[in-house]
Amino acid sequence: MLAIVYMPSNIVCIFQLAYGIRERRFQLWLDRWLLRRKPLGILTFTIAFCHSVITLILMTPAYYSTWFHPVEIMIPTVQNQTKIVIESGLMTAKGELASLLGILTQLCMSVLAITSIPAIGNLLNWREWRFIQSKLGIVTLLLAIGHVVAMALPRWIAVGLAKAFYNLGLLCLYFLLLTILLKFIFLLPCFSRPLYRIRRGQDAKRRKQSNQNAET
Fold first, then answer.
1. Hey, where are the domains in the chain?
2. 29-to-26, 44, 74 alpha-carbon distances in Å
3. pLDDT tens digits, residue range 148-184?
4. 78 phi, psi to nearest 5 deg
5. pTM tops 0.90, yes or no
6. In the beta sheet, which residues pair with residue 71?
7. What is the number of other CB atoms lying within 10 angstroms of the CB of residue 61?
8. Which of 8, 97, 186, 205 is the most exposed, fewest CB within 10 Å of its CB?
C-alpha cells in the first residue's frame, strides 16, 4: 500500500516525458489515483500502526521464536533425574534488525501522516512539505523494504533461490522494488533535467518560439 501511494508520481514522470509539456491533462484513471493518494496514505499509516501495536503485544518467544535465542538450563531433581527448562534469551540478529527497521519505518510514516494534516501542513512552506513527502517518503520505502528483507531473508536462504521467488516475503517486495527503482531512475540527470524544464514550462516556451521562428 505504501508503494501504491508513491507509484503515481512515477507514472506522471513517464507521461510528462512522453508529452513534453505539463499542460496536457492526464488520463482519468491517473487523475483519480493522484487524488486518492492522501486517503490511501492515511489508511496505510493506520494499518501499519495497528501492526506495530499488535506486534508489541505479541512479542514473546511463543509467537516469535526465531527472534530469540533459546537457553537450556539443566536442573537436577530429587529423584536423581535431570529436568530441562527452556527459557528465553536475548534477541537474535534477525529480531533486533527487524525490530529496528520496523520502528524507524513507523516513525517516518508518522511524520508523513502528521504533515499531511492541513493544520500542520500549512505551517510548512512548499519546499519543506515537498522534502518531507518526497524525500522522506523514499526513505520510508527503503526502510520498509529493509524490514521485510530482515524478516524473510533466513527463510529465503533455507528454501533456496528457486523457491524464494515464490515466497510471500519476496512477492510483497516486487511492487515496492519497482516503485523505488523508478524513483531513483527519475533522479538521474538525464531524466531529472528534462522533467525540471517541462514542469517549469521552459520546453513549451522553446517550442512556441521555434514555431514562431519557423512561421517567420
1. 2-202
2. 8, 21, 65
3. 998 888 888 888 777 778 777 788 888 999 999 999 9
4. -70, -30
5. no
6. 87
7. 17
8. 205
